[in-house]
Write a structure and sequence with these properties.
heterodimer; A: mainly beta; seven-stranded mixed β-sheet; 11 strands; globular; B: 110 residues; mainly beta; 0% helix
């Protein structure tokens, strides 16, 4: 069974609207991450978290907020979605800071 | 992107042949991870490396932190090896905060 799940798997949003992407992991991992992938490019880190109730800024945090209400759940929030935020978003988890990252299936977001 | 450069950017192989992918780092990488993104978009972890080498089946990877590079060797390429290979380097020790390269798109031909 998939240990990192994301919802929704795809979404169409309007410019200026609020979007919430959800990630759930059953790996019992402390570390969770949100990345975005643009067509033909690698992944860029938006936010990450080492522990529940705490989040850290990644390399491209502007325009995004994150929430880690529990060890299992990590959300990415776009308060005012913009066209430039059209991308595929991946969530990942890892057991500690010396462990590979395990990815969810991705969420395809289209902002119109 | 620029901190982690992958080469080649794209590659076609005949089934059964061998190849090597490379990552060069302009950051002081402490660990390296390799991933395969299959044609459906799913990301699978292949290796987590501290300086040294690891082998798993037809795949072998090496990481040289002093020379700032990592390689991924594919032996006896199969059709299911097709996809995009990404390396990701940890720039700050013990954080697991990584920087991804832009990938090598591999197509294995029958």
């Amino acid at each position: 069974e998939a240990a990192v799940t994301q919802s929704p798997r795809s979404k169409v949003a309007v410019t200026g609207g609020k979007v919430t992407l959800s990630c759930h992991q059953t790996n019992n991992h402390d570390y969770m991450y949100w990345y975005r992938q643009d067509t033909g490019h690698g992944l860029r880190l938006i936010h990450y978290s080492y522990v529940a109730d705490s989040t850290e800024k990644g390399d491209i945090p502007d325009g995004y907020k994150a929430s880690r209400p529990s060890q299992e759940n990590f959300s990415l929030i776009l308060e005012l979605a913009s066209l430039s935020q059209t991308a595929v978003y991946f969530c990942a988890s890892s057991g500690d800071n010396q462990d590979t990252q395990y990815f969810g299936p991705g969420t395809r977001l289209l902002v119109l | 992107g620029d901190k982690v450069k992958q080469s080649p950017s794209a590659l076609s192989l005949q089934e059964g042949t061998n190849s090597a992918l490379r990552c060069n780092f302009s950051i002081a990488a402490t660990t390296v991870q390799w991933f395969l993104q299959n044609p459906r978009g799913s990301l699978m972890n292949l290796f987590y490396l501290v300086p040294g080498t690891k082998e798993n089946g037809r795949l072998k990877s090496a990481f040289d932190s002093k020379e700032s590079y990592s390689t991924l060797h594919i032996r006896d390429a199969q059709l299911e090896d097709s996809g995009t290979y990404f390396c990701a380097a940890e720039a700050t020790a013990n954080t697991n905060k990584v920087v991804f390269g832009t990938g090598t798109r591999l197509q294995v031909l029958p």
